[in-house]
Amino acid sequence: MATERTFHVWRGDADGEHTEYTVEVNEGEVVLDILHRLQATQTPDLAVRWNCKAGKCGSCSMEINGRPRLSCMARMSTFEPDETITVTPLQTFPVIRDLVCDVSYNYQKAREIPSFTPDPETKPGDFRMQQADVERPQEFRKCIECFLCQNVCHVIRDHEENKENFSGPRYLMRVAELEMHPEDTADRRKVAQEDFGLGYCNITKCCTEVCPEHIKITDNSLIPLKEKAADRKYDPVVWLGSKIGLR
Length: 247
Ligand code: SF4
Ligand code: F3S
Ligand code: FES
Prior knowledge:
Layout: E1 3-11, E2 17-25, H1 31-41, E3 61-64, E4 67-70, E5 85-88, E6 95-97, E7 100-101, H2 104-112, H3 131-135, H4 148-152, H5 154-157, H6 169-180, H7 188-194, H8 206-210, H9 217-234, H10 236-243
Parallel strand pairs: 1-5
Antiparallel strand pairs: 1-2, 3-4, 3-5, 6-7
Helix pairs in contact: 6-9, 7-9
């Protein structure tokens, strides 16, 4: 049965404002369906990014009633019948227009991570991986690059000035994944601290809470990476090496 719902949708750039719409909602619909209905019936120039409508491309991220979510996975039936739905672009990235942000910060951070560095002495086919080493990073590979974790982390959400020195949970997770790979010869613990800002993370776990793939970002990647970085820092051999200029 169709009902009428009130939506407040962000319009314009950073100086924009919410505009109120009354719009039809049908059983089984998600927030992205309603935004498409608004485009089709009331405001054809509403800018919204989406692609798969199946929770797998990571394009339709936005803030719905203050919570970072995928709009294609936000079922209308989960809101109270009289609840106004307020839709805002991700707050951590510059708004281009309406619900579309410039997320290039994330691509820049991805490019800064040194790629997989296998031992050149290992011939193709010689390396054998333990099943445990295969399984551990598989969780991280479920990432759909929606940037909801990046958006919610207070280190950059509340402090624009930290963006230069902090890669955010998604890319620290990538560093952790490479550090865990038994065939990767690069020591990523020092760069994680010094170049990617691992020390800025104070384990608030907000990133983990919003991840639509339910990746345990904090427990399974950030904390193990912090432990490895701490081992390195307090390892007496490393300390001596750094003193005599070897590391
Ligand atoms: Fe999105 Fe989760 Fe990947 Fe972060 S780790 S970008 S929240 S899928
Ligand atoms: Fe930020 Fe996640 Fe750490 S939200 S502070 S990266 S645990
Ligand atoms: Fe692809 Fe929502 S449209 S995740």
